[in-house]
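Open question from group meeting: does this chain pack into something compact, or does most of it stay loose? Before anyone orders reagents, we agreed to write out a predicted structure and look at it together. Recording both the input and the output here so the notebook holds the full record.
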Amino acid sequence: MLEDLLDEAMTKMDQAVTHTGGEFGTVRTGRANPGLLHRIHVDYYGTATPLQQLAGFSVPEARMLIVSPYDKTSITAIERAIREADLGLNPSNDGNVIRLAFPSLTEERRKELIRVVRHIAEEGRVAVRNIRRHTKDDLEALEGDVSDDDIHRAEQELQEMTDTHIRRLDELLLRKEEELMEV
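Structure tokens returned:
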């Protein structure tokens, strides 16, 4: 029973770290990254459709992203959706593909984005701590059914698990900050 609770906590903490890493991917750096466009939905024949279902992406150079629609008639809708997503990018289309040129980030914009990623990392840490708290409550509810020593050992293991996941989040944050500060 204790192992089941700890395994469930481990799985949830892994998911929290993975989710936070995915959130970091949506923050624009000076480099072209197709991950930025994963949240964009296009109004395609009256239905909000994820952009990755309507187009392919390629990165021919570090600061250029090319969006190639599978259906050429959807190119204006895709262009409009990218503009409305407020990514700080200006799409240009030639009738076949949409080109997104990534401008260099200013120092002020870099610092603002670092604040954003630190906030995302803190949300990830809070999620991991909440998982620890809920699991600890579940462990304490087992008092009487399980020995106090076993509960104490499980709580120590839970704390080590939490510390490991917090360190992983901090490493992800450090890498993202370094990526943002690259010129």
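Observations to bring back to the group:
The chain has two domains: 2-25+106-181, 34-101.
The radius of gyration is 22 Å.
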